[in-house]
Amino acid sequence: MSHPIAIITGAASGIGLAVTKSLIAKGWRVVMADVDGKRGKEIAAELGQKVLFYTTDVSSYEQQAKLFKAAFDWGENRLDFFAANAGIADTEFLYDAKEHFDVNGVLQPLDLRTINVDLIAVIQGIWLFKHYARRNKIPGGKVVITSSAAGLYAMETNPLYTTAKHGLVGLARGLGPIFAKENIHVNAICPAFVPTALCPEEMLDRFPKEHITPMSTVIKVYDKLISDSSIYGQTVELSLDQLYFRTKPDYPNESQRWLGEDSAAFWEEAYKEPK
Ligand SMILES: NC(=O)c1ccc[n+]([C@@H]2O[C@H](COP(=O)([O-])OP(=O)(O)OC[C@H]3O[C@@H](n4cnc5c(N)ncnc54)[C@H](O)[C@@H]3O)[C@@H](O)[C@H]2O)c1
């Protein structure tokens, strides 16, 4: 039987690179995607034949679509796993005093790259993954979305990152049950602070050691979500060496419980066709 195939975005650094190394050690073949082509190619050359590096800016649908096609071809019509992992912090602050104007004095729009990379690209990636997962010899596959603790709580310095990461939690919860019917298992992970290049370099050494979540916890959750097909639509918070499966918020009354759990037949009829 051929080796299972994964696509990992943001694979040239941090979490994506650690997951890449962990999977190839377990016999996987990994298509590493990253916007940093130079670093990615150097690392891929060191990792050898088990990886294929593909320079990809995930915020370009065209580039991500080419990545998926290349991966499916490289895997000889096989794609088992997608780690939607690439992410960036806020590139402009919504609360910033600095503003830019065009020649007519009209305020320029806010830079929304964070939303494009951290949220929209993930949605498009899952759209692409579904297409190929349905064409696997045994249709189906697994997706792990890298949200963040900022997807559960607020990171006040980074409101756009917080918005995108909350959106990813909603995406996993909303898609999980319906995709599971066709053997595609989607979950989101919410790591606390893991020391990577995401944190400005000069601040890394100053982060309190007792609040660091090690990469081993990240690898542990990937192993669990890849091996256990009974888990889907879940949000897993990672803190220190622990995994916490976070359930939806409590319903305040019976009416909201009905809306959340028993109203599916109503909505299925209402949304037979997209509006
Ligand atoms: N490190 C943490 O503490 C932490 C905590 C919670 C969530 N996360 C999330 O984990 C994920 C991985 O981050 P990391 O901590 O490993 O950071 P990292 O900066 O080490 O790695 C991110 C990688 O994504 C790549 N990337 C950025 N924009 C891209 C784009 N448009 N297309 C393709 N690749 C792109 C970067 O080049 C980099 O290699 C991110 O989604 C991040 O938000 C990290």
From TrEMBL:
InterPro entries: NAD(P)-bd_dom_sf, Sc_DH/Rdtase_CS, SDR_fam. It comes from the Eukaryota. Keywords: NADP, Oxidoreductase. One of its GO terms (cellular component) is cytoplasm. Pfam families: adh_short. PROSITE patterns: ADH_SHORT. One of its GO terms (molecular function) is oxidoreductase activity, acting on the CH-OH group of donors, NAD or NADP as acceptor. PANTHER family: 15-HYDROXYPROSTAGLANDIN DEHYDROGENASE [NAD(+)] (PTHR44229). Belongs to the short-chain dehydrogenases/reductases (SDR) family. This is 15-hydroxyprostaglandin dehydrogenase.
